[in-house]
Amino acid sequence: MRRLVKTVTGPALMLVVALAVTPAGSAPDAVRGWAGTYAYAADGGRTAGGSAVVVVHTLRLAPAGGRPCQLTSAGFQTDTTILCEVTGSAQAITVAFRSYGDGRAVNAHGVAVYRPGQPLLRLRRLHRRLETEMLGLDADGPRTGALFAKTS
Description:
Elements (H helix, E strand, L loop, with lengths): L9 H12 L7 H4 L3 E11 L5 E10 L7 E7 L2 E11 L3 E9 L18 E8 L2 E6 L9 E2 L3 E2 L2
Antiparallel strand pairs: 1-2, 1-9, 2-3, 3-4, 4-5, 5-6, 6-7, 7-8
């Protein structure tokens, strides 16, 4: 039995090469436009002893490669790193839980606070401001509004 093999050349070959060298799960161009660092300081008031209850959430979105999305929360009784997935468009993105920083689906206390794929928050570009909608992120404070701001 004879096999027919067609040689791929020109633009079709370039497409095959481009797909072969693109990392699996890399963000589409629209999502890459969100690359940068975003921060939100959640002010939970004061303790009975007068200590400030502040947790700073920092979202880092890489343009490509490495860890494309990392969300850290640090402050009052909090020190958490979450690796996340990003989907969306040039106007809005959704950040979803992938794992904790150690690659596990449970936190340091063995508790599964989030499930893989669970949406944590959504960022939208509305006119000249950034709107945040907290979806599943366990964070004190408002659930929507101008919460996260781009810092770099």
